[in-house]
Amino acid sequence: MHRTRNRLLAVTTAIAALAAAALLGSGCGGTSEESAASGDGGMGGKLTLVAYSTPEEAYRELIPAFNETPQGKGVGFEQSYASSGEQSRAVEGGLPADVVEFSLEPDMTRLVDAGLVAENWSENQYDGFVTESVVVFMVRKGNPKDIRSWEDLIEPGVEVLEPNPFTSGGAKWNIMAAYGAQLERGKSPREALDYIAELFEHVPVLDKSARESLQTFSSGKADVLLGYENEAILAQQQGEQLDYVIPDETILIENPIAVTEESKNPQTARAFVDFLYTKKAQKIFARKGYRPVVKEILDEDRFPTPRNLFEIHGLGGWDRVNDEFFDPEQGSIAEIFQSQGKSTASG
């Protein structure tokens, strides 16, 4: 009954995402319907990729690169991009998908629980993660407020942008980076939560996704944007006037990918996912600012290891973190939001 209710609640989101996918189907890096039907070698057919917002630019190059391979020749794509939680709920609610990529593992676990992704989705040498990143501070060009540490974010007069963690997977990574950083600095769990509460007093806008928060920052709002290193790098490549700071204490971000159980073209979908782990594809991800999971191509000069880099399992893993921090009714972040009049709605 609970699962059925969740699927019904996601129907509206699914319809909206379906429209977005249709709009993206003939552009945004995909091949056309005519190409998909050409039948001149390769697997052919069509794939629907449903992903979180930030890797859209990478797929503009990855999909044509896949089309150049024997397995990808003649394959057409429809694509849908939005906040990670929104996309996961949309697929759960009926949005068709052959391949799903999310910002964090719980959004994949939701589909495993719904029977839409196989339980063994993560059983490869990369644990099912296709890219990595770290949480950084995006700041105005020249860093005029000299933002260097987590403590600088709660200085008087500093405004911080952070997406809503009840819609954005990236926002959850940011919050756990902030929380874990306090533990790394010797603070207690209670003191770390107090820091999070104070941090959100400096957040004037809660956008739905990391991409929307970047747009808000680009419009001139706030002094700092919490986000992925890859988003900062891509923004610079696209001419945004910003710098970014990797704090000494930050978290390793891991982004999962999988073929769905309801894929109408599972062989081609698997070939596409396998392609994303090739050196060619991982180099494309790296050019767009992602840290590759294929470590032999990792450029340590471009992607230095932060001094105190920690992982989500050191904080109890996502199952525990989601329950303790992000339950929309009883989680500690929900309590902070309720006390500050902020929304915990997931859609």
Please indicate the count of domains. Answer: 2
Note the gap between the termini. Answer: 20 Å
Strand content: 15-25%
- Please give the share of residues in helix: 40-55%
Shape: globular
CATH superfamily of the largest domain: Periplasmic binding protein-like II
Work out the radius of gyration: 20 Å
Number of helices: 14
* CATH architecture tag of the largest domain: 3-Layer(aba) Sandwich
Major sheet attributes = 10 strands, mixed
Provide a compact summary of the structure.
The chain contains 14 helices and 10 strands. By secondary structure, it is an alpha/beta fold.
Walk me through the topology:
Layout: H1 2-9, H2 11-24, H3 33-36, E1 46-52, H4 56-67, E2 76-82, H5 84-92, E3 99-101, H6 105-113, E4 129-140, E5 160-161, H7 169-184, H8 189-200, H9 210-218, E6 224-228, H10 229-237, E7 242-245, E8 249-259, H11 266-275, H12 279-287, E9 291-292, E10 308-310, H13 317-326, H14 332-340
Parallel strand pairs: 1-2, 1-3, 5-6, 8-10
Antiparallel strand pairs: 3-8, 4-6, 4-7, 4-8, 4-9
Describe the overall structure:
With about 350 residues, the chain is α/β, with parallel strands linked by helices. It has helices spanning about 1-10, 10-25, 35, 55-65, 85-90, 105-115, 170-185, 190-200, 210-220, 230-235, 265-275, 280-285, 315-325, 330-340, and strands at about 45-50, 75-80, 100, 130-140, 160, 225-230, 240-245, 250-260, 290, 310. Strands 1, 2, 3, 4, 5, 6, 7, 8, 9 and 10 form a ten-stranded mixed sheet that branches.
Write out key terms for the chains shown:
D-Maltodextrin-Binding Protein, domain 2; 40% helix; 347 residues; alpha/beta; 2 domains; disordered N terminus; 10-stranded mixed sheet
